Amino acid sequence: MSVENKNLSEGYWDIVMKQFRKKKLAVWSLRFFYFMLALALLADFVANEKPYYCQYKGNTYFPLFRGIAVDYGFANWNSEFVNADWINMEFETAIFPPVTYSATTIDIANSQYKGPFDEQEIKSFHRKHFMGTDQIGRDVAAGMVFGTRIALLVGVISMAISSIIGIFLGAISGYFGDERLQISRASLWLNVAFFFFAWYYAFQNRAYQLSDSMNGSFTVFFAQIGLSVLIFCIVMFIPNLIAFGLKRIGFLGKKVAIPLDILVMRSIEVINSIPITLLILSLVAILKKPSILWVMVIIGFTGWTGIAKYVRAELLRVRNLEYIEASQSFGFSEWRIIFKHALPNSLSPVLISIAFGIAGAILVESGLSFLGIGVQAELQTWGKLLSQAREEVSAWWLAIFPGVAIFISVTVFNLIGEGLTDAMDPRLKQ
Amino acid sequence: MFLYILKRILYFIPTFFVISIITFLLGQIAPGDPIELKLKGGMQSANQQSSEKLQTEKAYLEISEKYGRHLPPFYFTLSTSASPDTLYKIRKKSDRENLERIIAQYGNWDQISHYYYSVRKLEFAVMNAPKDTLSESTFEKRSNVRLACLSLYQQYEDKSIVNQLEAIKSLVSSNSEVVTTDSQKVSYKPLASLEQSYVEVENAYTAVKEKATPIKNYIPSLHWFGLGNQYHRWMFGDKPWFGENTDLTKTSSGLLRLDFGKSFLDDRPVASIIKDSLRWTLLLNLIVLLIVYIVSIPLGVALATQMGSRFDRFMTLVLFLFYSLPIVWIGTLMITFFTSDYYGDFLNLFPPYGLGKIGDEFGTWEKVLDRTYHFILPIICLTIGTFAYISRQMRGSMLSVIRQDYIRTAFAKGLSPRKVYWKHAFRNSLLPIITMFSGLLPAMIGGAVIVEYMFNIPGMGRVSYDAVVQRDYPVLFTILMFSAILTMLGNLLADILYSVVDPRISFTKKMG
To answer: pLDDT by residue (tens digit) across B38-58?
Structure first.
């Protein structure tokens, strides 16, 4: 009896995890992903030119922590550190981070491509450039650490955007199909008419606010976008309110089917018809100011089609299952059924898509920064480090280390994706 | 079958137009003024004569007409009732954008246009003011007034406009002292002639602020422009479709008649740029496709038939790693290690970039050999990923086929494995590979950007990279359109091939 209970309580995810754990490589990839995540989050503490702790002229300081507080405006530097030349400072005692440079630190003494085995002009061993330097004397190891942050950020944020769009569109097109979403004529006409108004008041009228905030900080921009979306929703609320009343009139109340599936599938075809690299290149080209954040948004807005297709296929299957029919007969609203009942059972393939998508996004980002397009000049990324190898043949460390980083991270995400695919494959389930 | 193809082609049309509109929109919101770029920024200097200014403005108009930029952008615009439907007639992009900003603040076009023309009047008055022979400083003052006028064209914030106006006011009303022949100091206003024009500007600006009707900005209005617009000209051309073209100002035949416009940079027709570059991209990718399909299909089948063997396990791992190899990295590694003698003479194997020998003085074979020599590294770069991808897919698809019952039946009736695999399983397992063919195309064009950039091959990818960097939008967006059309054709071809290979698929009835 107890055995049976145990089997019953073993949910879908338990089975998937069990299958996933059988794949050694996938499990190690997942662990490596955690490692990268930690590296990305703690990049400032792993690679920094300031020591964690130091004794300087008889006083004790914690310059690294203070530096971060200063960056965020919580504290000010002590007078002797305001214009400190951290690299050449002599401390009585000091504990340094593993990499004693940050990505933007310029070590002039070791500029012009100093390799790991070349003779470097350093004060002490802990200031050694383990992975060499680039032309202007930036440390490659530090660039690698901060590059991890950029790569993961691009992968995760762009895939987050993709999954939101993809899941939503895939769900509605799969669940409603071409026939199921029926609204009254009044509602349809009013919605179409008001869509223009909503667009007008939310985006066109606020175009200058939006485009001006684009050049400012990203939070301000998000606030402005949020305000626009809010206005859009408020204006779109009006026609639905009116239509609620008009529905009772016979002619206007007649139901019309919205061909959601066709609309969504057509837009997927449009996006898939444009070679993604070229599309991203052209989108990046029209930016006034290059920024990695825009690269993320652009990858996100172009990468949702795969996810949408998966979710659509899943919902096509799920919507005919009996429990959905049951909840329909309860009279639940369609949206509640989609998002509370149908979607949770269809999300597993999305995870696979996301894993492969992150790998793809990292590749795209490294390609773009290799080409020097769309990424701010001051940011160090793997692709940028790699591109510097083109300028100097002797700098093998610039050709190898960042390349290995891109390769490994892409492999890791592909392996996780593979592992998930196998784990979710019902044929393997015993 | 025929009906199906017809239906597919009919679907093709709306998709095509949606893509063209997206591309066109991208070109519209792209920053920078290409015409200004063409004039090499020689538009405005502080000491320009009015005749020069008029000349550059004329040149600006001519160029904008040549590129069709004098037309309204689209069939219709959704804008505010405050902005006039004739705003596009202000040709200069920066002026127009600034006026739009002012309209968004005050919403009264009558006053704003009056203000705009009064600033112009002041500017011309400055340029036409007679030379002052008495005081040296007058020249500098004049240039400063001119500069202030020029910056007024770019100002929309009240504070900065007021600042500029005040600067002009102080310049115009400032006194110069001149020592006359009988050594008497005489004070006079050298720019007194401008005062009247200045007062007009000031009054016009005050009127803009006082008679502001910002509420008009909240009333949407739809302007209809008809067929004479930039999009229509770009897509359908302005030359008549039937009959002789009599109007010499109409120069475009439109994208549908394969007139892609001209490059902003060197006026070369985009069609010829694409023709020249497409050659190399196609050549490279065809070789790659050939290698990939010749090698990876048999490999995939071999791996599937020997599933679980040591060879299979090893190759699966290798293919997986190949699949994850970033093109940027392989390319960089090969360029670093194989194209110079820095790491030893024996490693200096290949040329780092370029096409090799070009020109008539070389024989055909000589050129072919040299070309091959130059193409080896780029081809390796392009091949690895696709090769791994197709092999893996072929293996997977073959595996799923040979698990099926009819294969077991074929074995049971005593057929040789060779016959079972190649005659029974192979054809069915090819199906997914055919659909993949259409998906490969966009990926290959994308991959070509990086490889052609690295190895400096003047193909489509390299050209589009250059177009992005140099903001040569006609080239960039034509390539975008062109590759989209290629991809759609690829999809169509794949669907037709699919129905040829698999007679079970009739497409007449909707499946699922």
So the answer is: 776 554 555 667 778 888 888
Nearest to B332 among A288, A386, A394 (CB): A386
* Mean of pLDDT values over B445-452: 81
Chain-chain contact of A275 with B79 (C-beta, under 8 angstroms): no
pLDDT for A58 equals 78
The ipTM is 0.83
Give yes or no for B325 touching A (CB within 8 A): yes
Could you tell me if residue A198 is inside a domain? yes
The single-letter code of the amino acid at A71 is D
The answer to whether position A383 is within a domain reads no
Domain residues for the domain of A253 are 182-257
The reported pLDDT for the residue numbered A3 is 45
The torsion region of residue A112 among left (phi > 0), alpha (psi -120 to 50) and beta comes to left
Partners of A8 in beta bridges = none
Contact: B342, A393; criterion CB under 8 Å: yes
Write the residue in B30, B333, B449 that is nearest to A285 by C-beta: B30
Out of A196, A205, A273, whose CB is closest to B15? A273
Task: For chain A, list residues with pLDDT below 50.
Answer: 1-5, 428-430
First CA to last CA distance, chain B: 18
Task: Quote the CA–CA distance of A74 and A42 in Å, as a whole number.
Answer: 19
Q: How is A20-89 classified by DSSP, letter by letter?
A: HHT-HHHHHHHHHHHHHHHHHHTHHHHB-SS-SEEEETTEEE-HHHHHHHHHTTS----GGGTT--GGG-
Q: Which residues of B touch A144 (CB under 8 A)?
A: none
Residue A227 lies in a domain: yes
* Pick from A203, A142, A230, A406: nearest CA to B329: A406
CA of A304, closest CA in chain B: separation in Å?
Answer: 16
**Among residues 345-364 of chain B, which lie with CB inside 8 Å of chain A?**
none
As for how many domains chain A has, the answer is: 1
Q: Tell me if A200 and B220 make a contact (CB, 8 A cut-off).
A: yes
